[in-house]
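Quick one before lunch.
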Amino acid sequence: MKHIARKRFGQNFLKDQYIIHQIIDAIDPQPEDLMLEIGPGKAALTEPLLKRLTHLHVVEIDQNLIRLLRSRFNKQLQIYEGDILSFDFNPLLKDKKKLRVVGNLPYNISSPILFHLMRFAGDILDQHFMLQKEVVERMLAHPGSKEFGRLSVMMQARYNMNLLLEVPPESFDPPPKVYSAVVRMVPKPVESIADIDFDALEKLLAQAFSQRRKMLRNTLSSQLEALAAIGIAPTARAEEISLEQWLTLLKHQR
Ligand code: SAM
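Model of the S-adenosylmethionine complex:
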């Protein structure tokens, strides 16, 4: 059965065996790991993962690909049909083992997926994702750079992250228009982030970065006292404020 790649599902299938091996080695699956793959597609990662795992859970939205997967694999592969953005992780998290999440993500919804997973971070051991390189650069960006924004602060507040490898378009079929990169994300220990109100942080950042070239005295005009109390100049711009400063401001805001 032939499958024609669907653009609306962000389907760019990995074909480069060297890259596939590097990703699997970086994940380093252990037989008894509790692992979920987002968007298995034509099994480029799924198959080598299954060679090392006792069991693998996958979430796939494309019915045609689900049929292909069912015809190829047995019960070792547990397939959930549907949208990862409405996937209920709770049944998987019942057995007290922390979950490992992997995937060559559909780029059109990669940020919503990252934010959706944040809610379950306390039960997740690690995440290995192929993303658009530009998204990974934003996730890892330092204050003062043009890539530094809401995504950087939110992800850096919740995860320790590092770039594992960069992947050129020709490693995929069809090739995407952009470069890609694989990132490892390890949730920070719950104790170290217990006092962060992530919903409030998201709101604060949305306001501050709404016009990123503007000074904070304009975008956060209701927080001038808090800014002064923690020593942030009202003339500073959102992209210059470090993660630590954002978290301090969060505690002091009115
Ligand atoms: N893992 C395969 C590979 O590396 O070749 C496919 C990767 S492809 C970039 C993204 C995969 O995610 C596709 O199989 C696509 O059908 C699936 N997908 C797209 N949107 C999805 C969603 N909302 N929920 C679950 N899977 C989705």
